[in-house]
Write a structure and sequence with these properties.
single chain; 5-stranded antiparallel β-sheet; globular
């Protein structure tokens, strides 16, 4: 991409869609130089397609897909979330305390 004035003030991200129809809108960020990053932690396995959105024309409408397989790492418990039943604590997606 070409240099952008005020890159930290630009909207950027991606919309991820699972084959089941689940849709996640994930914000991205400027990482310096010509690097723009979206960090996606999928909540389920399977095929996810994505399409970027951005105020910068060159970054908008990029698309592709990722295929997510189950983790084989025994210590992976999912992303860190705020449980609805105890909003003052953090937990992993599988419910174990963080």
């Amino acid at each position: 991409p070409t240099p952008v004035d005020q890159p930290f003030e630009q909207e950027f991200g991606a919309v991820f869609t699972h084959d089941s129809g689940e849709v996640l809108r994930v914000p991205g960020f400027y990482d310096g130089g010509d690097r723009w990053i979206v960090r996606f932690a999928p909540p389920r396995t399977g095929r996810w397609s994505y399409r970027t959105f951005a105020q910068v024309r060159e970054l908008s409408g990029l698309q592709g897909e990722v295929h997510v397989t189950p983790s084989t790492h025994p210590d992976r418990r999912g992303a860190i979330v705020i449980p609805k039943d105890i909003p003052r604590r953090f937990a992993h997606e599988d419910g174990t305390p963080y």
